[in-house]
């Protein structure tokens, strides 16, 4: 006990500050010396008055007061005065009394002293007592802090504690607990009063539970609805454990109460989010499948049919892409609202409640739900015959006919509906879903806006197309698209005079030919971003070639006619060429004759504007459509491309050379260039040349190839004049020596 | 109990045990504790003895008791045990209200106080 270190508890001041008050100067000096020697910092005061002065601006850890100080404030008065000072309510005060002074001891406590100590010269005992008091004071402060913290935490958690004693029959609730029930901290509340706050219906069940718990001395854990006096309804979680006396008998319960209303609301909300689509409020996939499973069980047990209708909006992606996602969302909400009206929709999540509702309960499963995207499902839990499901499908198509207003625009939306019926079209929900999907795709394939019931003949179609479509969607962002180029040749000079760009899709290492994805792209509207990408890529390639070998002609890009009617086409082309710093004329657009004639009125203004900025137009597959020659004379076009079918038959059927001759004559008289496509043999080349067509493209010269291969082809085939068609062409060229003049020049 | 004027011992001795305890406060004497305590005692007891005479002259019993109490413990501390005993005598007499012999007891206390001062001064000189 000699070393202050033995008291060096964590959190205690290393050198406790002591205010020592004694009117006996000798004693004051000696006590101070002794305590300093034991690690205390001592401030001395020779009177109570002096002590109070010191405390005005200083707070010691402990105060030691001589009790009897004649001639002024004695220890008792001083102690009383200290206790009234703010901040000194709990500072430990040790009162020094005489050995024979019993009266002072009790007076000391009355005056608010923490402890007393009989004056003696055994200094170690005094030091030990001071350490003890300091530690007790610290413990008390910590206890007070932790009690306050607990109360605050319980308050925040809307939680409180209680004790219930069997014997005294008493319920004691903490102030925090009282607050949970809406009472003030000093209210006295009986168990009976609390039970009266439970709504009558629940009260009986709660009382049963309480009796049961008491009988077995088991743990209580339950949620209790409560009507507070202010009218609010709360849910209180009660959790309590039995306490046993020394004989092992249950003496009572101790536990907590907590207001869990918010948590319950959140749980309900979570349950709703898990089962309902956030956008439309309709049952989601999970909920639909759960309902379908229940419907299937019912149908199996009661031997009836039920139907799944898969509803997919037609061309929803186009709406989303053109009007934006928020407009798309608006549209989906309106569609959801309309679809709901087509069935006896019930919103309820019925887990558990279903069995109790009797044999017709499956009727409440009927609903429209949203699987995701623009896919909806109607679940008809009981249908008599196919006609029942078809009638609902017709109703669905019917409600879509009214235009939908989104973003201030009138949109017309149609849907394709596929129907699968249990048990004929599938024995499980998964089978029914898949087969309704197959049926839906068959509708899409046949032009949409209709419905179909699944049949085995439909199986196997549709799904791959969907996958293809999904993959194509991502092809641009994944950089899977490439342009291949087929050179356009002037056979007289044996040089390249341009190239046609043809799109290829590098899908997982396999080059997908355009025939396999362009029709789908046109069908889904993806052709727009695809074409825009192609224009940009062609401009980029023109720049590369310009740098690499002085390319100064044009690259022809195929566009569907409806792209010509888009107002932003010109701007897009402008951006493409300016961002690569090439002239507008490096881009040439090809439109098929059939397409052009179909949308002629929509296309003409664009053709004029394109022409004005220097973008030339070629008419592709010329001769296969039904051109209005009257229009042809007025259209701002630059080139006619003779369709490959005529070229193929050249030298075989006389009719084909007649058509070719006519086209060439027409072009000449209209001042248009003419070029032959699909030239594969020297013979075809020779005939075309003889008929007056010197520009050609085809396998004879080169297949469509990657841009770097095209450069190599120029270097290794055209430049050294090694290809068979070069010699041939030169020999044909009686009139001019253009080819020789061009010499070995790769390119002008 | 009847108080007799007692003759103080010719040379008052300070109690060896008390002095030893004092020295314990400063075992190697570095801080001059004994001297400081003795000096403090000399000045405070001089003052207290003076105050006691004034209190006696005006018959202030309460003040007499208080001074005796204070001087009792400080004299015990320096080993002036005879003085401390006289102080206790006076203090108890006042506290218990048995003041018949108080005048004699106070004179004894004052005389013993002078002796204690002599002893303390002798000690300070040595």
Structure, described:
The complex is a heterodimer of chains A (748) and B (126). Chain A has 748 residues and is an alpha/beta fold. Chain A has four domains: 4-152, Response regulator (Rossmann fold, 3-Layer(aba) Sandwich); 157-265, PAS domain (Beta-Lactamase), CATH 3.30.450; 276-461, Alpha-Beta Plaits; 526-741, TIM Barrel. Helix content of chain A is 45%, strand content 21%. Chain A has an eight-stranded mixed barrel with strand order 18-19-21-22-23-24-25-26, surrounded by five helices. Chain A has a five-stranded parallel beta sheet with strand order 2-1-3-4-5, sandwiched between helices. The longest helix of chain A is centred in the first third of the chain and has 34 residues, at 123-156. Chain B is mostly helical and 126 residues long. Chain B has a single domain (16-125), classed as Four Helix Bundle (Hemerythrin (Met), subunit A) (Up-down Bundle). Chain B is built from five helices and no strands. The longest helix of chain B is centred in the middle third of the chain and has 25 residues, at 33-57. Chain B is elongated and about 50 Å long. Chains A and B meet through helix 1 of A and helix 2 and helix 3 of B.
Largest interface: A-B, 18 and 23 residues
Number of strands of chain A: 26
Low-confidence stretches of chain B: none
Q: What distance separates the N and C termini of chain A?
A: 109 Å
Provide the spatial order of strands within the biggest beta sheet of chain A: 18-19-21-22-23-24-25-26
Class by alpha and beta content of chain A? alpha/beta
Which term fits the overall shape of chain A? elongated
> Quick one: biggest sheet of chain B?
none
What is the residue-mean pLDDT of chain B, rounded to a whole number?
Answer: 86
Largest sheet of chain A: 8 strands, mixed, barrel
Our estimate of the beta-strand percent of chain B is under 5%
CATH superfamily membership of the largest domain in chain A: EAL domain
Count of alpha and pi helical runs of chain A = 28
Give the end-to-end Cα distance of chain B, rounded to a whole number of Å: 39 Å
Radius of gyration of chain B: 15 Å
How many E strands of chain B? 0
What percentage of residues of chain B falls in helices of 4 or more residues? over 70%
The string of secondary-structure elements of chain B, in order, is: HHHHH
Number of helices of chain B: 5
Cα Rg of chain A: 48 Å
Level of helix content of chain A?
A: 40-55%
